[in-house]
Amino acid sequence: MSKYKIENAWICKIKGENVLPVFGDLEIIDEKISKIKRKSFSSYLKTPQDKSNRKNVYDAKGSVLTIPLVNFHEHFYSRLAKGLEIKGETDSFISILENLWWKLDRALTLDAVRFSAEMGVLESIKNGVTYIFDHHASPSYVKGSLAVISRILEKYKVRGVLAFEISDRNGDKITDASFSETENFYSEFSNSNIQAMLGLHASFTVSDNTLKRAKELSEQTGLPIHIHLCEDKADRTESKKNYGNFPAQRLAKFGLLNDKTILAHGIHLNKKEYETISKYNSAIALNPDSNLNNAVGLPNFNLIKNITLLSGTDGMHANLLRTLKNIFLLSRHSGLSFDESFELITKMFFGQLEFVKKYFPDFTGLSEGERADFVIWDYVPPTPINKNNFFGHYLYGIAERSPKSVFQGGKPLMIDKILVNIDEEEINKSIFNQGKKLARKFSKM
Question: Which fold does the domain 3-67+364-409 belong to in CATH?
Answer without folding.
Answer: Urease, subunit C; domain 1 (2.30.40)
